[in-house]
């Protein structure tokens, strides 16, 4: 079904199509941003329903769905896609000669749902708004840091098991597992420095921490802008009191954190992962956490969901959450709000802010 949401433009008016499943529409399209977009373009909708549950991958190839998408895109200036929509292939792009921008409401920055190279070669901007969830992920990372520094997960386990803890305050002071708790003045290492990392640095500012960053793709000028130190991955693990993994999952980052890096963590350190589980070697992480002298705070796993019999569930120095960092009521609509801003920039002749990277550029 294709539904016209606005049809007040005359001949030659800009036209934007939104293609995804109905649930995504209901969760992300806000009336205020829709009205903002309708102020400059006619807006039409195409429902593409499928049974996939993945975060970013399009449905398996379907020639009929591709043909329908190509027909839908034929007279569009902007195409917004998300869950349910088939991949934007060269055939779809060739059918849409007016197209100026294709935007994925969720794409993890690397264009699984768009043939980015084909779009670029045809002069079509390809963007996504994955960073719409950056703020809640950064907030949850801060929460996990504070939790880990007190090993609060262990205290929670013990209390719900019926233990009465620390009725003698001197007993608490004598327990080294809970004395390393202040974040103020600590050294925090960030593995990657994209939107989430930059927001996290803002949240860390009141704690006057020393920030180390490993990100070979981050412009070095950011070290001056945010008053931090760029360093190697090995030095970051050696020197940090807290390590936060923020790297996206690519062919280059898969397994980038292994036994050598985890082995370099100092006793008492906190290891936080809010990115993707496969960035870290699961075996090496489990082996390091078994030693009991560091605290792990994990929102993501490999495999995911975490198996019911995983040893990670039983370790007293591990705090777990089920991949919730980027999921809040507020951030869902933000994806569409940001996409409308990108469309308006593009239509006004300005540069877009959040261009996708072709996967072949990642090595």
Automatic annotation (TrEMBL):
Where the record annotates domain D-isomer specific 2-hydroxyacid dehydrogenase catalytic, the positions are 54-354
Q: Source species, please?
A: Jiangella mangrovi
UniProt xrefs under PANTHER family: 2-HYDROXYACID DEHYDROGENASE YGL185C-RELATED (PTHR10996:SF178), 2-HYDROXYACID DEHYDROGENASE-RELATED (PTHR10996)
Q: Which Gene3D superfamilies match?
A: NAD(P)-binding Rossmann-like Domain
Task: Note the InterPro entries from the entry.
Answer: D-isomer_2-hydroxyacid_DH, D-isomer_2_OHA_DH_cat_dom, D-isomer_DH_NAD-bd, NAD(P)-bd_dom_sf
Q: Which domain of life is it from?
A: Bacteria
Pfam families named in the record: 2-Hacid_dh (PF00389), 2-Hacid_dh_C (PF02826)
UniProt key word Oxidoreductase: yes
- Give a GO cellular-component term: cytosol
**Alphabetized UniProt keyword annotations:** NAD, Oxidoreductase
**Residue ranges of every copy of the D-isomer specific 2-hydroxyacid dehydrogenase NAD-binding domain listed in the record:** 143-325
The record lists the membrane-crossing segments as none
Protein family membership:
Belongs to the D-isomer specific 2-hydroxyacid dehydrogenase family.
- Name this protein carries in UniProt: Phosphoglycerate dehydrogenase-like enzyme
Q: Does the keyword Oxidoreductase apply?
A: yes
GO MF entry, a single one: glyoxylate reductase (NADPH) activity
């Amino acid at each position: 079904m294709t539904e016209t949401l606005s049809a007040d433009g005359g001949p030659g008016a800009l036209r934007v199509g939104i293609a995804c499943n109905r649930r995504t529409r209901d969760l992300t399209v806000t009336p205020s941003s829709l009205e903002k977009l309708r102020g400059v373009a006619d807006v039409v909708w195409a429902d593409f329903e499928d049974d996939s549950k993945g975060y970013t991958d399009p449905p398996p190839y379907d020639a009929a769905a591709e043909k329908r998408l190509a027909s839908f895109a034929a007279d569009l200036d902007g195409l917004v896609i998300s869950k349910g929509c088939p991949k934007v292939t060269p055939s779809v792009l060739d059918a849409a000669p007016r197209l100026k921008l294709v935007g994925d409401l969720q794409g993890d920055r690397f264009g699984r749902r768009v043939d980015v190279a084909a779009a670029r070669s045809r002069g079509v901007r390809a963007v996504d708004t994955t960073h719409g969830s950056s703020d809640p992920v950064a907030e949850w990372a801060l929460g996990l840091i504070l939790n880990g520094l007190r090993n609060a997960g262990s205290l929670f386990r013990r209390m719900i098991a019926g233990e009465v803890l620390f009725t003698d305050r001197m007993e608490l002071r004598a327990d080294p597992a809970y004395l390393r708790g202040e974040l103020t003045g600590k050294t925090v290492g960030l593995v990657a420095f994209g939107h989430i990392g930059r927001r996290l640095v803002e949240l860390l500012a009141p704690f006057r921490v020393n920030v180390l960053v490993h990100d070979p793709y981050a412009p070095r000028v950011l070290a001056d802008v945010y008053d931090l130190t760029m360093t190697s991955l090995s030095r970051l693990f050696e020197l940090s009191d807290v390590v936060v993994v923020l790297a996206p999952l690519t062919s280059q980052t898969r397994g980038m954190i292994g036994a050598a890096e985890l082995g370099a963590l100092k006793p008492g350190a906190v290891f936080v992962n809010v990115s993707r589980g496969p960035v870290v070697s699961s075996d090496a992480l489990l082996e390091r956490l078994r030693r009991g002298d560091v605290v792990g705070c994990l929102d993501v796993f490999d495999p995911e969901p975490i198996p019911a019999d995983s040893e990670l569930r039983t370790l007293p120095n591990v705090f777990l959450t089920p991949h919730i960092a980027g999921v809040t009521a507020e951030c869902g609509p933000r994806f569409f709000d940001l996409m409308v801003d990108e469309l308006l920039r593009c239509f006004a002749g300005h540069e877009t802010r959040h261009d996708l990277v072709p996967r072949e550029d990642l090595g």
